[in-house]
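ARCHIVE CARD
Drawer: 12
Card no.: 0347
Subject: one protein chain, sequence and derived structure
Cross-reference: see card 0346
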Amino acid sequence: MEQIIKIIFYAFSKYFWVFAIFITLIPVATAKRASNHYIQKKPELAPGYSKLFCGYLIWMNIPWVVMGIGCTVGQVPSIWYFFNPRDSNPYVLAWFSSIFIMMIVITYWIFFKGGAEFLIKHHNVLSIDISNPKVIRFFWLLLLVAGVFIMLTMWVVDFPIPQLLLQNILQSRPILCIAL
């Protein structure tokens, strides 16, 4: 049993990015189902909803694709290395850069390109009914501050990286390696 837990932990550590991509599909599926009610009332909103869902899927998955490249082709053995950007691994730095760029683009969209008003116009995307763009901007600023704090913490704190060498995990059962 302990061997199986180690294998699952290894797979999770190496392929977390696949799980994260899958998780980004859930809010889109939920919001898409909820938006059908509003689209039936106002069919002119359909292109906006489509644009919003497509944009969400693209932008929210960029960091996970970058992480996946680093974990599969690059020199990042597991997701735990992303907690230590101070090590200057280029794939980890690319991941941080993708998140930083995403924060800038979304902030620009919400504050200067009518993104807050767009979200209000397209009801129920946020799963709560907000009618004031200032509320959306305020919540985005809170998320932004939290995100910056988390990123700074990762730069300052020296998180220990678990050693997850598959050879050590599967010493006595190399046949299981084929499954991974």
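Annotation on reverse: The CA atoms of residues 75 and 89 lie 8 Å apart. Residues 2-179 form one domain.
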